[in-house]
Amino acid sequence: MILFLIGLVLFLGFHSLRIFAPAHREQMVSRFGEQGFKIIYSVLSVLTLVLLIFGYAHAPVINVWFPPAGMNHLTITLMLFASICLFASLIPAGHIAVKTKHPLVLSVKIWAFAHLFSNGDLVSILLFVGFLAWGVVMRISLKRRERAGLPVLRPFVAGRYDLYALLLGIVFWAAMIFKLHELLIGVAPLPM
Questions:
Q1: Which residues share a beta bridge with 63?
Q2: What is the value of pTM for the model shown?
């Protein structure tokens, strides 16, 4: 459990530097250059993610509550919206990205919130509450940056990107439900 908590704190903390130490990125870019910063950031992101996953996989299972039957269906339904927002954040901005303002942060919040319905063990609750709290704090931080006049929103490009986000999100969502989740996570969302 300790390894999981360290991984969770490091991963979320590392991805919160812009909130709590806004000048840190600029200092790192001036020291290592834009490309150097991206390499360092990527390597540290992967390392903290590996630590988080390893800690999660080896944490003891302590059940806090037992989700009622059918909660996984609610989770699966909400994950469709999370998947669409995820892809809206990865492609040029359409209406979805513009209206949600920060589709990646929204995707993380929906993902975390949805999984709280179908996971009752302590380590899962800590994981999803941690990511949900990170999403809320990140959204508040982004709103403050907007009000301060700092650029945080992507400009609208074209409505066709909404169609791409929908299609890619649905395909990804279906792939996760019917095979990928079980292959990657070890749990089938729809037990047969």
A1: 121
A2: 0.92
